[in-house]
Design goal:
By secondary structure, this protein is mostly beta strands. It has one helix and eight strands. Strands 1, 4, 5, 7 and 8 form a five-stranded mixed beta sheet that branches. A three-stranded antiparallel beta sheet has the order 2-3-6, with no helix packed on it. β2 and β3 form a beta hairpin. The chain is globular.
């Protein structure tokens, strides 16, 4: 069977519309794996298998709330992402925007 090139592009476009239009959803952050020496970078472990991800950070005097949004692919896995802060973490508590729970620091 010969596939004519002009038929392939519309099929790919339709498949991409179905898969590529999935919105990003909130993901659970289960641990802060690492805080840089200057306190401006936090590496968080996220319970997702992302094709794409984005983070937002809301900082106050007492807390740093991190939201991780992902577009997931199939599979059971986790990943780590570095999040940049505008001020050093210091003694502020890390909060996961997903469930409003504290994010534990790795020992």
């Amino acid at each position: 069977t010969v596939v004519k090139p002009f038929l392939v592009l519309p099929v790919v476009a339709v498949l991409c519309l179905a898969a590529c239009s999935q919105s990003m959803t909130a993901a659970d952050i289960f641990i802060a794996e690492f805080v840089s020496d200057d306190g401006l970078t936090v590496r968080v472990g996220v319970d997702a298998c992302p094709e794409e991800y984005a983070s937002t950070v809301a900082e106050s005097a007492d807390t740093v709330t991190i939201e991780m949004r992902v577009r997931t692919k199939q599979g059971d896995c986790g990943f780590a992402a570095d999040v940049e802060l505008s001020e050093p973490l210091g003694t502020r508590q890390l909060i996961d925007a997903f469930d409003q729970e504290p994010i534990p620091l790795a020992p």
